[in-house]
Amino acid sequence: MPAARRQAAAAATGVAAATVVSIRPVRPADLAQVIAIDSIVTGIEKAEYWRTIHRRYGDAERAGRRFLVAEANGSVAGFVIGEVRDWEFGSPPCGWVFAIDVHPQFRLARLGTQLVSAMADWFRSEGVSTMRTILARENTLILSFFRSLGMTTGPFIPLEIDLHHPGFFPIPPGRAA
Ligand SMILES: CC(C)(COP(=O)(O)OP(=O)(O)OC[C@H]1O[C@@H](n2cnc3c(N)ncnc32)[C@H](O)[C@@H]1OP(=O)(O)O)[C@@H](O)C(=O)NCCC(=O)NCCS
């Protein structure tokens, strides 16, 4: 997007040019704002889920996991969560980005790009050379965003099945061995 259009878009979403943005590890005091951003973006409040994620990923000392926030003028404006997974699906250690959200008021101001760039830096520092994510097919916004970072279709195909749908699975529920 040309700089002038980006500035106009940022102004429309309320991001002032003077906004000071820093990317840093999440702190316990950020959790309420993270929960609020997620509920604005997804329409579902999942406080307990986020408390669990914070326990699992919020400890900056914990190997292989990272939970970063973008702080804009003192409040949490977005976050990203990532993890290094070893030899999953036979693949060498790889960095997974599995959640990203930017508050609607702070979009189109490169916060999302800065969050993923910081995550990519951390993956590199962990010795990882590939970054992956997975996204909902109909979420064209997140697809455009990840494509803008240069990400392309990877070598894996997700498969799934409804485990409760009668007749789909070759062995009926509870009959294996
Ligand atoms: C996707 C998201 C993280 C982007 O955050 P952002 O800070 O606005 O993104 P950036 O300003 O860094 O944009 C980078 C690029 O992404 C693309 N992009 C971002 N928003 C876009 C939009 N609304 N339409 C089309 N492309 C868009 C553009 O290519 C943009 O580059 P450009 O402005 O030079 O064209 C943010 O919109 C968001 O949180 N959306 C909801 C995410 C979500 O659905 N999460 C749940 C699943 S994990």
Explain how this protein is built.
With 177 residues, the protein is of the alpha+beta class. 32% of the residues lie in helices and 20% in strands. The protein is built from 5 helices and 5 strands, in the order αβααβββαβα. It has helices spanning 3-12, 31-42, 47-57, 111-125, 140-148, and strands at residues 21-25, 65-72, 75-85, 94-102, 131-132. A 5-stranded mixed β-sheet has the order 1-2-3-4-5, sandwiched between helices. Helix 2 (31-42) packs across helix 3. The longest helix has 15 residues, at 111-125. The termini are far apart. The model has no long low-confidence stretch (mean pLDDT 89). Bound molecules: coenzyme A. The site of coenzyme A has 20 residues, from strand 4, helix 4 and helix 5.
Strand count, sense and closure of the main sheet? 5 strands, mixed
Helix proportion range: 25-40%
Order of helices and strands: HEHHEEEHEH
Structural class: alpha+beta
Fraction of residues in β-strands: 15-25%
User: How far do the termini sit from each other?
Assistant: 58 Å
